[in-house]
Amino acid sequence: MTQNIVKVKVWDVPTRLFHWGMLCLLGGLWWTAESGEMEWHQLLAYSLMILLGMRLLWGFIGSDTAKFSHFVRSPKTVFNYLQKTKQHGISASIGHNPIGGYMVVALISLVTLQLVTGLFATDEIFTEGPLYATVKDDTALWLTWLHKQNFDLILILAAIHVLAVGVHMFKGDKIIAAMFSGYKRLPSELEQPLVFASVVKAAIIVMVIGVLVVNYFMLPIIEML
Ligand code: HEM
Ligand code: HEM
């Protein structure tokens, strides 16, 4: 029996920009921390704050496949998905699969924690996060320690994520191309009606968060450069 393959839009522009933008910024954040370029470390972190803020909101008011309610499934659904995968192997899905959804939540949560702990962090020489002075010294040192440890956890989860992506690619599910183009080729029976939110809405969110972040976090650093 021949399967009818159709081209389906799965990822919108904001979700794709968030993913690849975050990847570049995380690379830059690691590099700037390693080389002691702390002004740039902070500027990159605040750029990520804008992207992350947009993505978190987009998880509630964005396109269907970006919504947390679309990809955070019940444990029963995860169990059924695992059973199905055990019997029939990996199959393509629209948006994140039930296990992938939990990985996405874990990655976004850890990156958010990294950003928040950074706000309280200190290198005990020149750099203090903007909220450093709001907590006791011991707490700030503990949050700095967490900032360093949590990054290792991000690296471990990201490695598992990339490995899982690799396994999907090996099984013929072209998910990397889809994260670039937004489109997937799928059997027509998987096609489902999806609502895609307007890019203008995302641009407005980025602008509003951007103005606040630039004003309160970035300008004080730029003035010191
Ligand atoms: C070369 C490295 C990477 C590749 C090739 C890659 C690839 C992908 C792909 C293909 C997806 C879509 C998965 C699906 O179809 O369900 C995805 C989603 C995602 N990836 Fe990655 N990824 C990489 C690195 C990372 C890193 C370093 C992080 C974060 C630490 C990350 C976080 C995420 C998140 C949060 C999503 C969900 C996107 C969203 O819904 O906003 N990825 N990635
Ligand atoms: C998601 C955003 C962030 C990422 C991915 C990130 C990443 C990192 C990494 C990889 C390190 C080095 C850890 C180590 O030495 O083992 C580091 C250190 C540090 N980060 Fe961040 N950071 C982020 C946000 C921030 C923010 C907003 C600040 C605010 C000032 C900040 C301040 C610092 C400080 C003070 C250190 C310690 C440097 C030292 O002791 O040498 N980070 N960060």
CATH architecture: Up-down Bundle
Number of separate structural domains: 1
How many β-strand runs?
2
Tell me the distance between the termini: 66 Å
Q: What Rg is obtained from the alpha carbons, in whole angstroms?
A: 20 Å
Quickly name the level 1 CATH class: Mainly Alpha
CATH superfamily: Transmembrane di-heme cytochromes, Chain C
Number of helices: 8
Ligands in the model, by name, code or SMILES, are: protoporphyrin IX containing FE
CATH topology: Fumarate Reductase Cytochrome B subunit
Major beta sheet, specifics?
Answer: 2 strands, antiparallel
Percentage of helical residues? 55-70%
The helix/strand class is mainly alpha
Q: What is the overall silhouette?
A: elongated
What does this structure look like?
- The chain has 225 residues and is mainly α.
- The chain has a single domain, classed as Up-down Bundle (Fumarate Reductase Cytochrome B subunit), CATH 1.20.950.20.
- The protein has 8 helices and 2 strands; from the N terminus they run E-H-H-H-H-H-H-H-E-H.
- It has helices spanning 13-34, 38-61, 68-71, 75-88, 98-120, 137-170, 175-181, 199-224, and strands at 5-9, 183-187.
- A two-stranded antiparallel sheet has the order 1-2.
- Helix 1 packs antiparallel against helix 2 and helix 5 (98-120) packs antiparallel against helix 6 (137-170).
- The N and C termini lie far apart (66 Å).
- The mean pLDDT is 96.
- Bound molecules: protoporphyrin IX containing FE (2 copies).
- One protoporphyrin IX containing FE binds at residues 26, 29-30, 33, 41-42, 45, 48, 111, 114-115, 118-119, 121-123, 127, 129, 144, 147-148, 151.
- The site of one protoporphyrin IX containing FE has 22 residues, from helix 1, helix 2, helix 5 and helix 6.
